[in-house]
Amino acid sequence: MSQLYWQTEGTGNTDLVLLHGWGLNAEVWHCIIDRLRSHFRLHLVDLPGYGRSNGWTAMSLDRMVEVIEAHMPERAICLGWSLGGLVASQMALRYPSRVQGIINVATSPCFTAREAWPGIKPETLLSFQRELSGDFQRTVERFLALQTLGTERARQDARILKNVVLSLPMPSVEVLDGGLEILRTVDLREPMTALTLPHLRIYGYLDGLVPRKVATLLDKQWPESQSVVLEKAAHAPFISHPELFCEQLIEFKKYFQ
Fold it and tell me: Which of 20, 53, 82, 157 is flagged as catalytic?
């Protein structure tokens, strides 16, 4: 039977579930755990089919949320980065009694560019999906490189992400393709307007995958949420600016005390 990797650590009295992005695993949070362990009880998760949560096939966003919800603490803040942001958002929509707040990091409710909506060109995501069946490791590395472009430590940060991927077994082509399909097709812009729980959105000013204009548009569409744009960060702000990133999380925790 497939097992979901779930590790809990930290001495804080607030549960924080950390959901990683496409192609990666929970090791990506290594650089911020020590900064957060005294403030939160941290739940480090490998999404189904990724890292140590092997044995799972590709699944829809709803199915992924169902698998994770079965392991959730009674009440938690869900933090989702990139693809994980869609998982955290859908978790709050489907199981509002289990989620007391959400933090979306470098994520968009709709990753694909549409009319009057900035994002990744649909053909770019389709091209990644096609390339997976050829040289999927190179395709994953190319996608990771896009996440750090423009930052002062772009090469170093890209190397950190690559090492996270290579430190554990690679997800299957099927799982990776399923993740890209979620990024290409899911649109939570309208459903998320109904959320009333505390909601923090963190962006990188230099992010090439989630344009900073998304923050401005959602400030208007989701006025109950709050946004922070980190000026010199790209798609992985917790790696490039860990101290500044953690300050935002600790400040957000005050809503629950």
Answer: 82
The reply, when asked if residue 146 is annotated as ligand binding, is yes
Q: For residue 1, is it within any domain? A: no
Residue of 20, 43, 235, 241 with catalytic role = 235
Residue 255's alpha-carbon distances to 98, 171, 172, in angstroms, are 16, 36, 39
Query: Residue 46 carries which DSSP code?
Result: P
According to the annotation, is 145 in a ligand binding site?
yes
Instruction: With respect to residue 186, please indicate whether it lies within any of the assigned structural domains.
Output: yes
**Residue 143 marked in a binding site:** yes
> How many separate domains does the chain show?
1
pTM over 0.90: yes
Identify residue 32 by its one-letter amino acid code: I
135 is a domain residue: yes
Does 235 qualify as catalytic in the annotation?
yes
129 assigned to some structural domain: yes
Do residues 210 and 235 make contact, with C-beta atoms less than 8 angstroms apart? yes
Ligand-binding annotation for 199, yes or no, is no
82 is in an annotated binding site: yes
CATH number, domain containing residue 61: 3.40.50.1820
Cα 11 to Cα 239: distance, rounded to the nearest angstrom? 22
Q: 166 and 45 in contact (C-beta within 8 Å)? A: no
Residue 207 annotated in active site: yes
**Looking at residue 218, what is its pLDDT?**
98
With a CB cutoff of 8 Å and minimum separation 6, the contacts of 40 are 10, 12, 14, 15, 16, 77, 249, 253
Q: Which of 15, 46, 157, 207 is catalytic?
A: 207
Q: Structural domain of residue 31, as residue ranges?
A: 6-254
Taking only the tens place, the pLDDT of each residue in 175-199 is: 999 999 999 999 999 999 999 999 9
